[in-house]
Amino acid sequence: MSKIRVGVIFGGASSEYEVSLKSACSILANLDNGKYDVIKIGITRKGQWLRYYGEIERIEDDTWYLEDSCNQILISPNKMDSEIIEIKNDIFIRRKVDIIFPVLHGKNGEDGSIQGIFEVAGIPYVGCNVVSSSICMDKDYAHKIVDKEGFRVPKNLVINSEVDTEKISEFLMNMDFPIYVKPANEGSSIGITKASNKDESFTGIGEAFKYDNKVVLEENIDGFEVGCAVIGNDDLIVGTVDEIEFSGWLFDYKEKYTLIHSKIHLPARIDRALTEKIKKTAIGIYRALGCTGLARVDMFLDKNNNIIFNEVNTMPGFTTGSRFPNMLLHSGMKYKDMLDKLIELGLERKQ
Question: Cofactors per UniProt (predicted)?
Answer without folding.
Answer: Mn(2+); Mg(2+)
